[in-house]
Amino acid sequence: MNFIIFQPDELRAESVGCYGHPLAPTPNIDTFAAQGTRFDQCHVQHSVCTPSRCSMMTGWYPHVRGHRTLWHLLRPQEPNLLKYLKQAGYTVLMYGKNDLLATASFADSVTEAHSHGKNLFGPNPYAFDDPRYYSFLYEASTGPVEEHSDYANVHAAINFLKSKPKQPFCLFLPLIFPHCPYSAPQPWHDLINPDELPPLRPADLPNRPDFHTLIRRYRRIDQLDATEQANLLRKIQAVYLGMTGFIDHLLGQLLNALEDSGLADSTTVTFTSDHGDYAGDYGLVEKWPSAGEEVITRVPLLVRTPGGKSGHVVKEPVELFDLMATTLEQAGIKADHTHFAQSYSAQLDGAAGNPLRVAFTEGGYARHEAHCFEGRPDRDLFARDKGNIYYPKGQQQQDYPDSVGRMIAMRTSTHRLVYRPTGQCELYDLASDAQELYNQDDNRAYATVQRDLEAQLLAWLTQSSDVTPFDTDPRAHK
Prior knowledge:
By secondary structure, the protein is of the alpha/beta class. The protein has two domains: 2-356, Alkaline Phosphatase, subunit A; 365-404, no CATH class. It is built from 13 helices and twelve strands. It has helices at residues 27-35, 49-58, 62-65, 81-87, 106-109, 149-162, 210-218, 226-261, 294-297, 322-331, 345-348, 391-399, 447-463; strands at 2-7, 37-43, 91-95, 112-114, 169-174, 267-272, 298-304, 312-319, 359-363, 407-411, 415-419, 426-429. Strands 4-3-5-1-6-7-2-8 form an eight-stranded mixed beta sheet, sandwiched between helices. β3 (91-95), α5 and β4 (112-114) form a beta-alpha-beta unit. It starts with a strand and ends in a 15-residue tail after the last helix.
Protein backbone atom coordinates (compact mmCIF):
# COMPACT_ATOMS: atom_id res chain seq x y z
CA MET A 1 0.00 0.00 0.00
CA ASN A 2 1.24 3.47 -0.93
CA PHE A 3 0.05 6.61 0.86
CA ILE A 4 -0.60 10.21 -0.15
CA ILE A 5 -1.47 12.71 2.59
CA PHE A 6 -2.71 15.92 0.98
CA GLN A 7 -2.91 18.54 3.72
CA PRO A 8 -3.93 22.14 3.11
CA ASP A 9 -3.15 24.47 6.00
CA GLU A 10 -5.97 26.03 8.02
CA LEU A 11 -8.89 24.59 6.05
CA ARG A 12 -12.09 24.25 8.05
CA ALA A 13 -14.57 21.59 7.04
CA GLU A 14 -17.61 23.80 6.58
CA SER A 15 -15.94 25.74 3.75
CA VAL A 16 -15.87 22.66 1.49
CA GLY A 17 -18.77 21.78 -0.78
CA CYS A 18 -19.23 18.17 0.36
CA TYR A 19 -19.50 19.48 3.93
CA GLY A 20 -22.38 21.69 2.98
CA HIS A 21 -21.11 25.08 1.80
CA PRO A 22 -23.32 26.24 -1.08
CA LEU A 23 -20.66 28.39 -2.79
CA ALA A 24 -17.49 26.36 -2.20
CA PRO A 25 -15.60 25.99 -5.51
CA THR A 26 -14.49 22.44 -4.71
CA PRO A 27 -15.66 20.06 -7.47
CA ASN A 28 -12.56 17.87 -7.29
CA ILE A 29 -12.70 17.54 -3.51
CA ASP A 30 -16.41 16.75 -3.69
CA THR A 31 -15.88 14.09 -6.39
CA PHE A 32 -13.06 12.59 -4.36
CA ALA A 33 -15.31 12.43 -1.28
CA ALA A 34 -17.90 10.49 -3.30
CA GLN A 35 -15.22 7.95 -4.21
CA GLY A 36 -14.32 7.14 -0.61
CA THR A 37 -15.28 7.89 2.99
CA ARG A 38 -16.13 11.30 4.36
CA PHE A 39 -15.76 11.78 8.10
CA ASP A 40 -18.28 14.45 8.99
CA GLN A 41 -16.93 15.19 12.47
CA CYS A 42 -13.14 15.05 12.40
CA HIS A 43 -11.59 17.29 15.05
CA VAL A 44 -7.97 18.30 15.50
CA GLN A 45 -6.04 17.88 18.74
CA HIS A 46 -4.72 21.45 18.76
CA SER A 47 -5.82 24.76 17.27
CA VAL A 48 -2.39 25.74 15.86
CA CYS A 49 -0.24 24.20 13.11
CA THR A 50 2.82 22.69 14.79
CA PRO A 51 1.21 21.02 17.82
CA SER A 52 -1.68 19.75 15.69
CA ARG A 53 0.72 18.06 13.27
CA CYS A 54 2.82 16.63 16.08
CA SER A 55 -0.34 14.99 17.44
CA MET A 56 -1.40 13.80 14.00
CA MET A 57 1.88 11.98 13.46
CA THR A 58 2.29 10.50 16.96
CA GLY A 59 -1.18 9.72 18.30
CA TRP A 60 -0.31 11.79 21.36
CA TYR A 61 -2.44 14.55 22.75
CA PRO A 62 -0.42 17.79 22.95
CA HIS A 63 -0.13 17.72 26.74
CA VAL A 64 1.46 14.25 26.76
CA ARG A 65 4.93 15.47 25.79
CA GLY A 66 4.56 19.24 25.79
CA HIS A 67 3.98 19.67 22.07
CA ARG A 68 1.75 22.70 22.60
CA THR A 69 3.74 25.49 20.93
CA LEU A 70 5.15 26.62 17.60
CA TRP A 71 8.65 26.10 18.96
CA HIS A 72 8.64 22.43 20.00
CA LEU A 73 8.70 20.05 17.03
CA LEU A 74 9.16 16.28 16.99
CA ARG A 75 12.66 15.29 18.06
CA PRO A 76 14.77 12.24 17.11
CA GLN A 77 13.96 10.27 20.25
CA GLU A 78 10.21 10.62 19.63
CA PRO A 79 8.11 8.38 17.37
CA ASN A 80 6.21 9.56 14.33
CA LEU A 81 4.31 8.03 11.44
CA LEU A 82 6.83 9.06 8.79
CA LYS A 83 9.68 7.47 10.75
CA TYR A 84 7.76 4.20 11.07
CA LEU A 85 7.17 4.13 7.33
CA LYS A 86 10.76 4.94 6.43
CA GLN A 87 12.12 2.30 8.77
CA ALA A 88 9.77 -0.20 7.13
CA GLY A 89 11.31 0.50 3.72
CA TYR A 90 9.05 3.22 2.38
CA THR A 91 10.29 6.14 0.33
CA VAL A 92 8.98 9.09 2.35
CA LEU A 93 8.75 12.44 0.57
CA MET A 94 7.64 15.65 2.28
CA TYR A 95 7.01 18.52 -0.13
CA GLY A 96 5.80 21.72 1.55
CA LYS A 97 6.09 23.64 4.81
CA ASN A 98 7.65 22.02 7.84
CA ASP A 99 5.65 22.52 11.02
CA LEU A 100 6.46 19.01 12.20
CA LEU A 101 10.07 17.84 12.45
CA ALA A 102 12.98 19.26 14.39
CA THR A 103 16.08 19.57 12.21
CA ALA A 104 17.72 16.50 13.72
CA SER A 105 14.64 14.36 12.95
CA PHE A 106 14.76 14.57 9.17
CA ALA A 107 17.39 11.85 8.70
CA ASP A 108 15.30 9.14 10.35
CA SER A 109 11.88 10.29 9.18
CA VAL A 110 12.05 11.31 5.52
CA THR A 111 13.87 10.28 2.39
CA GLU A 112 13.53 13.75 0.91
CA ALA A 113 12.07 16.98 2.27
CA HIS A 114 11.83 20.12 0.20
CA SER A 115 9.67 23.18 -0.24
CA HIS A 116 9.47 24.21 -3.88
CA GLY A 117 8.37 27.54 -5.31
CA LYS A 118 7.60 30.74 -3.45
CA ASN A 119 5.00 31.89 -0.94
CA LEU A 120 3.15 34.06 -3.38
CA PHE A 121 0.72 36.47 -1.76
CA GLY A 122 -0.36 39.81 -3.11
CA PRO A 123 0.57 43.07 -1.35
CA ASN A 124 -1.25 44.57 1.59
CA PRO A 125 -3.43 47.26 -0.05
CA TYR A 126 -3.95 49.29 3.13
CA ALA A 127 -1.75 52.01 4.59
CA PHE A 128 -0.48 51.41 8.11
CA ASP A 129 -2.89 53.94 9.62
CA ASP A 130 -5.88 52.29 7.92
CA PRO A 131 -7.85 50.14 10.42
CA ARG A 132 -7.88 47.34 7.82
CA TYR A 133 -4.08 47.11 7.73
CA TYR A 134 -3.90 44.19 10.18
CA SER A 135 -6.94 42.36 8.76
CA PHE A 136 -4.89 39.90 6.62
CA LEU A 137 -6.93 40.88 3.54
CA TYR A 138 -4.41 41.32 0.74
CA GLU A 139 -4.67 41.87 -2.98
CA ALA A 140 -4.50 39.00 -5.46
CA SER A 141 -1.09 37.52 -6.13
CA THR A 142 0.25 38.33 -9.58
CA GLY A 143 3.27 36.06 -9.99
CA PRO A 144 3.24 33.06 -12.34
CA VAL A 145 1.01 30.41 -10.82
CA GLU A 146 3.68 27.81 -11.58
CA GLU A 147 5.95 29.53 -9.04
CA HIS A 148 3.37 29.39 -6.26
CA SER A 149 4.70 27.10 -3.53
CA ASP A 150 1.57 24.94 -3.38
CA TYR A 151 1.54 24.53 -7.16
CA ALA A 152 5.26 23.75 -7.23
CA ASN A 153 5.08 21.23 -4.40
CA VAL A 154 2.10 19.40 -5.86
CA HIS A 155 3.82 19.25 -9.22
CA ALA A 156 6.97 17.89 -7.60
CA ALA A 157 4.74 15.10 -6.30
CA ILE A 158 3.24 14.67 -9.77
CA ASN A 159 6.73 14.31 -11.26
CA PHE A 160 7.50 11.66 -8.67
CA LEU A 161 4.37 9.72 -9.67
CA LYS A 162 5.36 10.01 -13.34
CA SER A 163 8.65 8.29 -12.48
CA LYS A 164 6.64 5.10 -11.76
CA PRO A 165 8.26 4.36 -8.39
CA LYS A 166 8.81 0.69 -7.62
CA GLN A 167 9.39 1.04 -3.90
CA PRO A 168 6.34 1.65 -1.67
CA PHE A 169 6.03 5.36 -0.92
CA CYS A 170 4.41 7.95 1.28
CA LEU A 171 3.88 11.41 -0.21
CA PHE A 172 3.19 13.99 2.49
CA LEU A 173 2.07 17.33 1.03
CA PRO A 174 1.76 19.97 3.79
CA LEU A 175 0.66 22.96 1.71
CA ILE A 176 0.19 26.66 2.53
CA PHE A 177 -3.33 27.60 1.37
CA PRO A 178 -5.82 28.62 2.59
CA HIS A 179 -3.66 29.96 5.45
CA CYS A 180 -3.82 33.75 5.56
CA PRO A 181 -2.98 36.36 4.38
CA TYR A 182 -6.20 36.08 2.41
CA SER A 183 -4.84 36.33 -1.11
CA ALA A 184 -4.95 34.02 -4.13
CA PRO A 185 -3.99 34.02 -7.79
CA GLN A 186 -6.71 35.04 -10.19
CA PRO A 187 -9.31 33.90 -11.03
CA TRP A 188 -9.60 32.36 -7.56
CA HIS A 189 -9.08 35.61 -5.62
CA ASP A 190 -12.31 37.15 -6.93
CA LEU A 191 -14.12 33.93 -7.76
CA ILE A 192 -16.73 34.26 -5.01
CA ASN A 193 -19.08 37.22 -4.76
CA PRO A 194 -19.11 38.37 -1.11
CA ASP A 195 -22.72 39.54 -1.45
CA GLU A 196 -23.85 35.97 -2.18
CA LEU A 197 -22.36 34.44 0.96
CA PRO A 198 -24.61 33.01 3.66
CA PRO A 199 -24.70 35.22 6.77
CA LEU A 200 -21.51 35.17 8.81
CA ARG A 201 -21.62 34.41 12.52
CA PRO A 202 -22.05 37.75 14.31
CA ALA A 203 -19.43 39.48 16.44
CA ASP A 204 -19.81 40.68 20.03
CA LEU A 205 -21.88 37.73 21.20
CA PRO A 206 -22.40 37.54 24.97
CA ASN A 207 -20.40 35.25 27.25
CA ARG A 208 -17.48 34.81 24.86
CA PRO A 209 -13.82 34.50 25.84
CA ASP A 210 -12.05 37.85 26.10
CA PHE A 211 -9.72 37.14 23.18
CA HIS A 212 -12.65 37.78 20.82
CA THR A 213 -12.81 41.42 21.87
CA LEU A 214 -9.04 41.75 22.17
CA ILE A 215 -8.31 40.40 18.69
CA ARG A 216 -10.76 42.87 17.21
CA ARG A 217 -9.14 45.67 19.22
CA TYR A 218 -5.51 44.79 18.54
CA ARG A 219 -6.19 44.24 14.84
CA ARG A 220 -8.21 47.50 14.82
CA ILE A 221 -11.24 45.89 13.23
CA ASP A 222 -13.40 47.54 15.89
CA GLN A 223 -12.39 50.97 14.55
CA LEU A 224 -14.47 50.38 11.42
CA ASP A 225 -18.14 51.24 11.33
CA ALA A 226 -20.70 48.45 10.98
CA THR A 227 -20.93 48.64 7.18
CA GLU A 228 -17.14 48.72 6.73
CA GLN A 229 -16.72 45.77 9.06
CA ALA A 230 -19.35 43.73 7.25
CA ASN A 231 -17.80 44.44 3.83
CA LEU A 232 -14.32 43.58 5.08
CA LEU A 233 -15.30 40.33 6.77
CA ARG A 234 -17.41 39.09 3.88
CA LYS A 235 -14.61 39.78 1.41
CA ILE A 236 -12.21 37.91 3.69
CA GLN A 237 -14.44 34.85 3.69
CA ALA A 238 -14.95 35.10 -0.08
CA VAL A 239 -11.19 35.13 -0.70
CA TYR A 240 -10.73 32.27 1.79
CA LEU A 241 -13.17 30.23 -0.29
CA GLY A 242 -11.26 31.20 -3.42
CA MET A 243 -8.01 29.99 -1.86
CA THR A 244 -9.78 26.72 -1.11
CA GLY A 245 -10.74 26.59 -4.78
CA PHE A 246 -7.07 26.86 -5.73
CA ILE A 247 -6.32 23.90 -3.47
CA ASP A 248 -9.17 22.00 -5.16
CA HIS A 249 -7.58 22.71 -8.54
CA LEU A 250 -4.26 21.25 -7.38
CA LEU A 251 -5.89 18.16 -5.88
CA GLY A 252 -7.56 17.49 -9.20
CA GLN A 253 -4.21 17.64 -10.99
CA LEU A 254 -2.63 15.27 -8.48
CA LEU A 255 -5.44 12.73 -8.67
CA ASN A 256 -5.29 12.76 -12.48
CA ALA A 257 -1.57 12.09 -12.32
CA LEU A 258 -2.13 9.24 -9.87
CA GLU A 259 -4.60 7.64 -12.27
CA ASP A 260 -2.22 8.08 -15.20
CA SER A 261 0.61 6.46 -13.23
CA GLY A 262 -1.33 3.24 -12.73
CA LEU A 263 -0.81 3.46 -8.96
CA ALA A 264 -4.31 4.50 -7.89
CA ASP A 265 -5.33 0.92 -7.13
CA SER A 266 -2.49 0.54 -4.64
CA THR A 267 -2.58 3.97 -3.00
CA THR A 268 -4.59 5.31 -0.07
CA VAL A 269 -5.19 9.04 -0.50
CA THR A 270 -6.13 11.20 2.49
CA PHE A 271 -7.33 14.79 2.24
CA THR A 272 -7.36 16.67 5.54
CA SER A 273 -6.10 19.79 7.33
CA ASP A 274 -4.42 20.74 10.60
CA HIS A 275 -7.07 23.20 11.93
CA GLY A 276 -9.56 25.77 10.72
CA ASP A 277 -9.81 29.55 10.41
CA TYR A 278 -12.28 32.19 11.60
CA ALA A 279 -12.37 33.67 8.07
CA GLY A 280 -14.55 36.57 9.20
CA ASP A 281 -16.93 34.62 11.44
CA TYR A 282 -17.51 36.12 14.90
CA GLY A 283 -15.85 39.26 13.50
CA LEU A 284 -12.46 37.51 13.66
CA VAL A 285 -9.62 36.52 11.36
CA GLU A 286 -6.96 33.80 11.33
CA LYS A 287 -7.07 31.46 14.37
CA TRP A 288 -6.10 31.72 18.04
CA PRO A 289 -4.06 29.29 20.20
CA SER A 290 -6.81 28.93 22.80
CA ALA A 291 -9.78 28.92 20.42
CA GLY A 292 -12.17 26.00 20.77
CA GLU A 293 -15.00 26.70 18.32
CA GLU A 294 -16.09 24.36 15.55
CA VAL A 295 -14.70 26.65 12.83
CA ILE A 296 -11.25 26.03 14.33
CA THR A 297 -11.37 22.39 15.44
CA ARG A 298 -13.43 20.71 12.70
CA VAL A 299 -11.53 19.84 9.54
CA PRO A 300 -12.25 17.76 6.45
CA LEU A 301 -11.15 14.15 6.54
CA LEU A 302 -11.69 12.36 3.25
CA VAL A 303 -10.10 8.98 2.57
CA ARG A 304 -10.09 6.89 -0.59
CA THR A 305 -8.48 3.48 -0.20
CA PRO A 306 -8.32 0.50 -2.58
CA GLY A 307 -11.29 -1.78 -1.92
CA GLY A 308 -12.92 0.77 0.38
CA LYS A 309 -16.56 1.73 0.29
CA SER A 310 -17.55 4.62 -1.96
CA GLY A 311 -19.78 7.44 -0.82
CA HIS A 312 -19.71 6.41 2.83
CA VAL A 313 -20.26 9.11 5.47
CA VAL A 314 -19.22 8.63 9.09
CA LYS A 315 -21.30 10.96 11.23
CA GLU A 316 -19.73 10.11 14.59
CA PRO A 317 -16.71 12.03 15.96
CA VAL A 318 -13.15 11.00 15.15
CA GLU A 319 -9.85 12.67 15.95
CA LEU A 320 -7.30 13.76 13.37
CA PHE A 321 -4.51 11.70 14.89
CA ASP A 322 -6.49 8.54 14.04
CA LEU A 323 -4.74 8.93 10.69
CA MET A 324 -1.55 7.63 12.32
CA ALA A 325 -3.09 4.44 13.69
CA THR A 326 -4.99 3.74 10.47
CA THR A 327 -1.97 4.21 8.21
CA LEU A 328 0.19 1.92 10.34
CA GLU A 329 -2.54 -0.74 10.26
CA GLN A 330 -2.85 -0.48 6.48
CA ALA A 331 0.93 -0.72 6.11
CA GLY A 332 1.13 -3.74 8.41
CA ILE A 333 3.37 -1.92 10.90
CA LYS A 334 2.95 -2.31 14.65
CA ALA A 335 3.47 0.81 16.74
CA ASP A 336 6.06 0.39 19.47
CA HIS A 337 4.95 3.41 21.48
CA THR A 338 1.90 4.11 23.65
CA HIS A 339 -0.60 6.30 21.84
CA PHE A 340 -4.28 7.25 21.96
CA ALA A 341 -5.24 7.15 18.28
CA GLN A 342 -7.92 4.75 17.07
CA SER A 343 -7.89 3.15 13.63
CA TYR A 344 -10.81 3.99 11.33
CA SER A 345 -10.08 1.11 8.92
CA ALA A 346 -13.48 -0.45 9.58
CA GLN A 347 -15.18 2.82 8.65
CA LEU A 348 -13.35 2.83 5.32
CA ASP A 349 -15.11 -0.47 4.61
CA GLY A 350 -18.52 1.01 5.43
CA ALA A 351 -18.91 0.61 9.19
CA ALA A 352 -20.44 3.30 11.36
CA GLY A 353 -18.35 5.14 13.92
CA ASN A 354 -18.60 5.15 17.68
CA PRO A 355 -21.50 7.38 18.78
CA LEU A 356 -19.95 7.66 22.26
CA ARG A 357 -16.59 8.89 20.97
CA VAL A 358 -15.41 12.23 22.32
CA ALA A 359 -12.94 14.36 20.37
CA PHE A 360 -10.54 16.53 22.36
CA THR A 361 -8.73 19.70 21.32
CA GLU A 362 -6.17 21.57 23.42
CA GLY A 363 -4.58 24.98 23.20
CA GLY A 364 -3.04 27.94 24.95
CA TYR A 365 -0.33 28.47 27.56
CA ALA A 366 -0.10 29.01 31.30
CA ARG A 367 1.42 32.14 32.83
CA HIS A 368 4.47 30.21 34.09
CA GLU A 369 5.32 29.25 30.49
CA ALA A 370 6.77 32.59 29.42
CA HIS A 371 8.92 30.86 26.80
CA CYS A 372 5.79 29.63 24.98
CA PHE A 373 4.04 32.90 24.26
CA GLU A 374 4.39 34.63 20.91
CA GLY A 375 5.59 38.23 20.76
CA ARG A 376 8.90 37.86 22.60
CA PRO A 377 11.32 40.51 21.25
CA ASP A 378 14.33 38.28 21.98
CA ARG A 379 13.00 35.58 19.65
CA ASP A 380 10.23 36.81 17.35
CA LEU A 381 11.32 39.32 14.73
CA PHE A 382 7.74 40.47 14.19
CA ALA A 383 7.58 41.57 17.83
CA ARG A 384 9.99 44.40 17.02
CA ASP A 385 8.21 45.54 13.85
CA LYS A 386 4.81 47.19 14.16
CA GLY A 387 4.43 46.93 10.42
CA ASN A 388 4.47 43.13 10.56
CA ILE A 389 1.05 41.57 10.11
CA TYR A 390 1.63 39.34 13.16
CA TYR A 391 2.68 42.15 15.49
CA PRO A 392 -0.79 42.56 17.09
CA LYS A 393 -1.00 38.84 17.83
CA GLY A 394 2.25 38.74 19.77
CA GLN A 395 1.57 42.04 21.51
CA GLN A 396 -1.82 40.85 22.72
CA GLN A 397 -0.32 37.67 24.15
CA GLN A 398 2.32 39.66 26.01
CA ASP A 399 -0.14 42.26 27.31
CA TYR A 400 -2.97 39.85 28.16
CA PRO A 401 -1.47 36.40 28.80
CA ASP A 402 -4.72 35.01 30.17
CA SER A 403 -6.38 35.75 26.82
CA VAL A 404 -4.30 32.90 25.45
CA GLY A 405 -4.55 30.74 28.58
CA ARG A 406 -4.81 26.98 28.45
CA MET A 407 -8.04 25.40 27.31
CA ILE A 408 -9.46 22.00 26.50
CA ALA A 409 -12.40 21.57 24.13
CA MET A 410 -14.38 18.35 23.98
CA ARG A 411 -16.83 17.53 21.23
CA THR A 412 -19.43 14.78 21.61
CA SER A 413 -22.11 13.87 19.09
CA THR A 414 -24.41 16.45 20.70
CA HIS A 415 -22.44 19.02 22.69
CA ARG A 416 -19.25 21.03 22.89
CA LEU A 417 -17.59 22.03 26.15
CA VAL A 418 -14.61 24.40 26.21
CA TYR A 419 -12.96 24.44 29.62
CA ARG A 420 -10.70 27.32 30.59
CA PRO A 421 -9.20 27.57 34.10
CA THR A 422 -8.45 31.30 33.63
CA GLY A 423 -11.17 32.49 31.29
CA GLN A 424 -14.71 32.16 30.02
CA CYS A 425 -15.82 28.55 29.63
CA GLU A 426 -18.20 27.62 26.82
CA LEU A 427 -20.97 25.04 26.43
CA TYR A 428 -23.02 24.61 23.27
CA ASP A 429 -26.00 22.43 22.49
CA LEU A 430 -25.13 21.51 18.92
CA ALA A 431 -28.50 19.95 18.18
CA SER A 432 -30.20 23.33 18.52
CA ASP A 433 -27.22 25.66 18.01
CA ALA A 434 -24.95 24.31 15.29
CA GLN A 435 -23.22 27.67 14.81
CA GLU A 436 -22.34 27.96 18.50
CA LEU A 437 -24.02 31.30 19.05
CA TYR A 438 -25.51 30.73 22.52
CA ASN A 439 -23.10 29.88 25.30
CA GLN A 440 -24.90 27.78 27.91
CA ASP A 441 -22.05 27.77 30.44
CA ASP A 442 -23.52 27.93 33.96
CA ASN A 443 -27.06 27.76 32.58
CA ARG A 444 -29.03 25.76 35.17
CA ALA A 445 -30.99 24.04 32.41
CA TYR A 446 -27.72 22.44 31.27
CA ALA A 447 -26.23 21.78 34.70
CA THR A 448 -26.50 17.99 34.44
CA VAL A 449 -25.02 17.96 30.94
CA GLN A 450 -22.16 20.21 32.02
CA ARG A 451 -21.33 18.09 35.08
CA ASP A 452 -21.29 14.94 32.97
CA LEU A 453 -18.98 16.51 30.38
CA GLU A 454 -16.65 17.83 33.07
CA ALA A 455 -16.47 14.35 34.61
CA GLN A 456 -15.56 12.89 31.22
CA LEU A 457 -12.92 15.58 30.84
CA LEU A 458 -11.35 14.69 34.19
CA ALA A 459 -11.34 10.99 33.33
CA TRP A 460 -9.69 11.71 29.97
CA LEU A 461 -6.98 13.83 31.58
CA THR A 462 -6.28 11.10 34.09
CA GLN A 463 -6.01 8.39 31.45
CA SER A 464 -3.91 10.41 28.99
CA SER A 465 -1.68 12.35 31.37
CA ASP A 466 1.52 10.67 30.19
CA VAL A 467 2.92 7.70 28.30
CA THR A 468 5.13 4.92 29.62
CA PRO A 469 7.88 3.56 27.32
CA PHE A 470 7.60 0.02 26.04
CA ASP A 471 11.21 -0.86 26.89
CA THR A 472 12.32 -1.40 30.48
CA ASP A 473 15.44 -0.74 32.53
CA PRO A 474 17.09 -3.44 34.68
CA ARG A 475 17.03 -2.88 38.41
CA ALA A 476 20.37 -4.49 39.00
CA HIS A 477 23.00 -3.05 41.34
CA LYS A 478 26.05 -1.68 39.63
